[in-house]
Amino acid sequence: MSKLSIVVPVFNEEEAIPIFFQAIERVHQNLSEYDFEYWFIDDGSTDQSMSAIKQLQTQSEWVHYVQFSRNFGKEAAIYAGLEHASGDYVALMDVDLQDPPELLPEMLDGVASDEWDMVGSRRINRVGEPPVRTFFSNLFYKLINKISATHLVNGARDYRVMNRQVVNAILSDGEYNRFSKGIVAWVGFRQKYIPFENVERVAGKTSWSFWSLLKYSVEGIVAFSQVPLTVIGILGVVSFITSIIGALLIFLRALLVPHSAVGGWPSLVVIILFMGGIQLLSLGIVGRYVAAIYLETKHRPIYIAREVK
């Protein structure tokens, strides 16, 4: 009998955990040909999430968990879950049930039939979310797909089912600054995405703020595109050529009109501020890439487990 490992990152989700487990177990009744195992990865929760997970463990021998020593982030939790999962197939799901469990049989069937190596999911709308978040999300996908060789599916969720080969390929990428959506797209294999309507959280509140999503987007761009560095180089060349042309014009004016007055101090200040801004922006972008290199060279572990059971 084949085994399906379900990896569930958790951060302050005490209310959603038992609801999630019951929902998946209902789906399991229609997938009796598979053994299920659950890996709940507690990402340094400060509520009673661990108590809820341990309570589930008293009900089922197939419930396992990894408790982090502190909050390492969802990417680290995903990596830890994939690392511990022992199933022939691995499903990655959010505990808030925004990933519809009813899609699981179709996704699993697509991979188990060997037609696909990975079947993922994507939201076709964001009903219920703030319009500004929807706007910036669409903008992010348009931008990264223009500046990166790795294509990301707009609206793609972390919710996916993978065979063992895909899981091993993802784990072989041991980079510290992880961006799972990009890594999954980068490893390749035969991939398919199932569309679905946006679903509201079943309980609790999201831990993703606009600022945290923005930082996550920046990490994705840095991880999978060098175009910002190229743009900086182009800006430098354009600025240099413009300064040469300006110097020549000033020199010619001095020759042709020797007694012309030197004016335009306000415009000069604006130009200086403009060039200074470009330089600081360029340094900031380069600094972000250098910071990523710095973190990689430290070779710190992606996560530290306080308890594994």
Structure description:
The protein is of the alpha/beta class and 309 residues long. The protein folds into 2 domains: 2-131 and 151-209 and 301-308, Spore Coat Polysaccharide Biosynthesis Protein SpsA, Chain A (Alpha-Beta Complex); 227-298. Helices cover 51% and strands 17% of the residues. It contains 10 helices and 8 strands. It has helices at 16-28, 49-59, 74-84, 104-112, 131-147, 164-172, 180-187, 210-224, 227-256, 265-298; strands at 2-10, 34-42, 63-68, 89-92, 118-123, 156-163, 191-196, 305-308. It has an 8-stranded mixed sheet, with helices on both faces. Helix 1 links the parallel strand 1 (2-10) and strand 2 (34-42). Helix 5 runs parallel beside helix 8 and helix 9 (227-256) packs antiparallel against helix 10. The longest helix is centred in the last third of the chain and has 34 residues, at 265-298. The protein is elongated. The relative contact order is 0.14. The mean pLDDT is 76.
Write the layout of secondary structure elements.
Blueprint: E1 2-10, H1 16-28, E2 34-42, H2 49-59, E3 63-68, H3 74-84, E4 89-92, H4 104-112, E5 118-123, H5 131-147, E6 156-163, H6 164-172, H7 180-187, E7 191-196, H8 210-224, H9 227-256, H10 265-298, E8 305-308
Parallel strand pairs: 1-2, 1-4, 2-3, 5-7
Antiparallel strand pairs: 3-8, 4-6, 5-6
